[in-house]
Amino acid sequence: MMREIGTLLLAEDNPKDAELTLMALEKHNLANKVLWVHDGEAVLDYMCRRGEFADRPNGNPAVILLDLKMAKVDGMEVLRAIRSDPSLRTTPVVILTSSREERDLVESYSLGVNAYVVKPVKFDEFFEAVGQLGVFWAITNEPPPDTAR
């Protein structure tokens, strides 16, 4: 029996990268379960069920695909906030970024990121990498039980 596909939260401020990511996920029949937000503040609003997301259903996404360099609140601050909140900390977070800076990589893992993926420059490689990420985190990976009450 196949389990239900979990929601993916895509945090990406670059519309072209977001469009490519959504296309790759759609190829694997995952796009209908993706919520795209444009900045770190919106990620935290979604996760904390506030603002425009105050009435969203309980539960956390199967995974957050998180860019690092975003407006309002950057990805590292989002990761720090998620990992410091007991009701959110088990939510898988994958950094999906163009940053190859060693300090970003080291800090991400020290804060508890589940994976760090540097966006491939070539279209085909980017498309394939995102598709594999989506399938693994939305279908293959067994998520932690929902502890929200």
SSE string, helix = H, strand = E? EHEHEHEHEH
Shape: globular
Distance between the termini: 27 Å
DSSP strand content? 5-15%
Q: Widest sheet: strand order?
A: 2-1-3-4-5
What is the helical fraction, as a range of percent?
25-40%
Average predicted local confidence, pLDDT: 86
Keywords for this structure?
alpha/beta, about 150 residues, Rossmann fold
Structural write-up:
Helix 2 runs parallel beside helix 3. The chain has a five-stranded parallel sheet, sandwiched between helices. The protein has 149 residues and is of the alpha/beta class. The mean pLDDT is 86. The protein is built from five helices and five strands; from the N terminus they run E-H-E-H-E-H-E-H-E-H. The chain has one domain (8-137): 3-Layer(aba) Sandwich (Rossmann fold). It is globular, with a radius of gyration of 14 Å. It starts with 7 loop residues before the first strand and ends in a 9-residue tail after the last helix.
